[in-house]
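Q: What structure does this chain adopt?
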Amino acid sequence: MSTKKHLKKNTFTLIYILLDFATAALAWCCFFSLRKWKEASYFHLPQVWNSILGDYKFYIGITLIPLCWIILYAFCGTYNHVWKKSRIKELTNTFTTILFGSLILFFAVILDDYIINYTDYIKLYLLLFCLQFGLTAITRLTFISILKKQVYKGYITYNTIMIGNYDLCLDLLKTLQKKAKFTGARFVGYVCMNDIPENENQDMLPLLGDYTSLSQIIHDENIEEVIVAVKNNKLEVFDKVFPQLISSHVLLKIIPSIEDHLLRTVKDTSILDEPFIQINMGFRPQWQTVTKRITDILFSAAFLIICSPIYLILAIGVKRSSPGSVFYLQERIGKGGKPFYIIKFRSMYENAEINGPQLSKKDDARITKFGLFLRKTHLDEIPQFFNVLKGNMSLVGHRPERQYYIDQIIQKAPYYKLLLMEKPGITSWGQVCYGYAENVDEMIERLRYDLMYIENMSISLDIKIIIHTILCMFKRNGK
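A:
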């Protein structure tokens, strides 16, 4: 492997983008030409060609439309890890994306065409789709096939590390090396889960350090995949490995146990045909991430402007309820374990936590009368739209907690750290289904709803949660 010349991956991404641009331009050129041919009263090739070249729309379309396709593809995450693509999955994704993109292009550009009957619309759309999909699919599949051959020859690799016991890591490495085809995983070493062993033969798999330095190792070694060679103690993985991977974008693969196979948690993804439980450390597709952020900004800005009189009324109510500031700032833990200050309307008397952190409970004497109204209607939360605009929070996520309580939760439920891979939200599935928690045990009980959200997160689910949150506000079931 060391004698082979490794190819630069950024070059493949650039070529992939240029091929998409070229095929989109060719597809539009063919489509535009066929439309002009159809509009001609008689077939005369020179006149049709002159009509095409003399139309300024042809030149606008052949430059802007391919650019729009590139933006759409990037929005859908098409250009992530080009060298790892599966031909079948890429064909499916290409079909879905172009089906949607052709519909947008049809309504934006072609709907005003002269037609005899409405079946012409269907024919035009199908023609546009078939040209765009056919040319793009053929080009992509050809290029991916070429890349796969380079992978099999060892010219394209991605750095991979193992985590766990040395003997188990070495056995797995030997198993993978026996496979017929090389699929690009270049094992640079292993990371031990417990104490660093002494006097161990590490010729085949060098020791890079222990799990506490995992995030630094991933950065220094440019790691793309992490394989956890721990079969039985999955809690150890959540407790020790996940905190180090929260801010990374690696693909995590775990050796499954017999129970995992029986419960069908093993995905049909593998390295060299070896089955693994696969966890992508970026749950949401790129297009959903961008859409969610845009929605957060637009909705929050509109809410702050339209509801500014409500803010003023509530601020006066808080000020008159008891001496102290109108807003209450408190440090919470956000995405990647980074602290930030959450902003709320003050619902308690000043210095309510002078004796240390305390969760609110029923008939809490620290809550003012007006503060009780704010909490029941969840109106104390609405200043957090400023947090959303700033980027600390999202409209929907999990409720952010203080480090003091996170430390207690993790002792009983280490998988809480999964939540830190996403932004917290003003509202959450746990907030809607469970409500406020009065102690750590209730926090853990509510945690299952937030984990379900992480597993099923989507734009449509966010909309449902927002609707249910509004209903909860009118029912005044907060506490």
